[in-house]
Write a structure and sequence with these properties.
The chain is mainly alpha-helical. The chain has 6 helices and no strands.
């Protein structure tokens, strides 16, 4: 059985536009959670792109990177209060236990 990487390379090659888009998307998706977390911590998109680009972690332009992040942020679920350190009890939301 052939590996997925070899099948993709055989179909799209290294230089096809479709293959390049898929590569860029995958580079960003691999670090999706990390990138979104750092954005939440206050880092700028440009700063994140510069660091990843300088370290050869991504191979796209800033404009492409920012576009992918906009789409990722639109799809990202809203943060639940307990994920940001806020605890909500049943008293806070007016829920009572049924007898």
């Amino acid at each position: 059985m052939k590996g997925l990487a070899s099948l993709l390379k055989a179909k799209y090659g290294n230089n096809s536009a479709r293959g390049k888009r898929a590569q860029i998307r995958n580079e960003i998706l691999i670090r999706k959670n990390e990138i979104l977390a750092e954005l939440t911590n206050g880092w700028l998109v440009r700063a994140i792109w510069e660091v990843l680009s300088e370290n050869k972690e991504i191979t796209c332009t800033y404009k492409t990177f920012a576009g992918h992040l906009r789409r990722l942020q639109a799809k990202a679920p809203a943060r639940v209060p307990d994920q940001i350190g806020v605890k909500i009890s049943s008293k806070d939301v007016g829920v009572t236990a049924l007898s």
